[in-house]
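User: Sorry, folds how?
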Amino acid sequence: MRIAIIGAGNVGSTLGRAWQRLGHEITYGVRQPGDTRHAGLGTAVTDNATAVADAEVVAVCTPWQGTQAAVTACGDLTGKVLIDCTNPLTPDVAALELGHTTSGAEQIAAWAPGARVCKTMNQIGAPMMDSPALPTAPVMFVCGDDNAAKDIAAQLVQELGFETLDAGDLTAARLLEPLALLWIHMALRRGLGTQWALGVLHIDS
């Protein structure tokens, strides 16, 4: 699958390398493609519009404060599966800038009319996004308004080593983004660190 990763920070580079290793064709879209910081990514690095031009899936992995500009720079995303991996965090990552009546994912959908937006891969930190070595597969919730797009997003997430659960339509991002904030709070402020994940325990039928 042809995947454009928008943003090459910790999240973007982790997902890009993981999906590339799994056989997907990865292109990164960044603000400054010639920056030497991107030299080690091992694949095409270009501007956002070029990265998404032939992509089937676009994964947005930018800090929230730069997300609107990044999505706008992609141009027309009509029909593309857009996986929103962001969280609308304040600069000090202590709170959310949006919530209760909307979400970051819904805002991205407004910035990218026609895109098939799904929310996932936002509920854990970058160190645990690629094949987390845990006794059981951690859970990763997926939400979105387009069921076929959710199926594609869920398959990509499962390939990374997660159990996926469909949380419903895109408004469920109002639940998933605070869930991410809880993970961040426990990891960074309560001393739990980054080597853990949430899971779902099932009763055998």
User: Anything to note?
Assistant: The chain has a mean pLDDT of 96. DSSP finds six helices and eight strands in the chain. The helical segments are 10-21, 48-53, 67-74, 104-111, 147-159, 173-189.
